[in-house]
């Protein structure tokens, strides 16, 4: 299932889409000088995909905290917590699939790098059962993966660089998809930038950055001048999630904005010079109690913030009435699960996709059916999808209980081919061929299927018989049944 969001429009006014499923597998690099519209682009990407995928934003300037006003993001003000607490939150975020903004605004550069490294490493080291798909957006990535040593200690730089390298180079298998933005490619370490397969290049002026951007976009050097002429908010895009050929686009509007707003001209004050002088040099020993200012918000205790991550704002607060009805009716939820699994099995490629991508597809389909939240966690989905590939869409039916008990003695990944064989035995049908068993097992290798059947026979789960004509039948001792010869 292709899941696309509209990111903007091209030169002809046609919509330009980003395939989120493909983006999760191939990562994204955004480059543009200050004022080119990088943050606006990232905000548009985050807003449009907020309902599709878990989001983690590493925000060094506090620009994205306002997303929490319109979406279910949890803002973590890093200055209020120590390193172990930040690492704990990173682990809990993966477990509970909470979308968060890590606000580093209150920290100095060295502390920002240390905090981001601890947070990213904790997410990277999460248990395998928590490897859910997540979009990890890092703004000002050159701060966390600098190409040259700066004023920070070498140990801090190595830790931050190692965390960013893990995110971009090894994060895909753990469900982490990096989307990084930088002002200058020359400031970003090359092995981090090189792992991205999708590129969005905004306005830039230095020759070295234009040349690198043109190379990444597959453009000739003489075409690099085009990057210098881009307007604010316009980008050149390329990549499997965007377009197979370089495409120019203007990023669409956003629903939220930064707290600072845009930098536009304001009328100058009309006060007389003498009045201005009076205001500037007035008595300065004002009683602090009398000074009018907004009180500083009290920091949230780490335990309380972790509790919020584990129990995010209920979807019913922001969902429409049909969502509430769907979530409160278990019969409808189970029927939806069965319908969605049936739709997924209709796609012949689904048998060979990774669990993380399948779960992302399942999540999107459930939301399209107006469920307020995904009804299955990854581990339970993996089991249900394996049963569905074996022909059992509803495991609660009494007629399947003996069959499921027989399958319990085998590893989980072998359940689907075993169930196909067992169902054929129950129905008196011919034995499934190697191609059918391969689809259930997720392989196109006949050799792996032969070894699979041999393993099941050694475990006592099946008994294989072959006649002189080469026809095969497989018996299930625990059920006392056998398939027809095929």
TrEMBL record:
Occurrences of domain Helicase HerA central (ranges): 5-106
MF-aspect GO terms: ATP binding
Coiled-coil blocks: none
Keywords assigned: ATP-binding, Nucleotide-binding
InterPro entries per the UniProt record, alphabetical: ATPase_Atu1862_pred (IPR014588), HerA-like (IPR008571), HerA_central (IPR002789), P-loop_NTPase (IPR027417)
Lineage of the species this protein comes from: Bacteria, Pseudomonadati, Pseudomonadota, Alphaproteobacteria, Sphingomonadales
Protein name: ATP-binding protein
Pfam families to which the protein is assigned, alphabetical: DUF87 (PF01935)
Highest taxon of the lineage: Bacteria
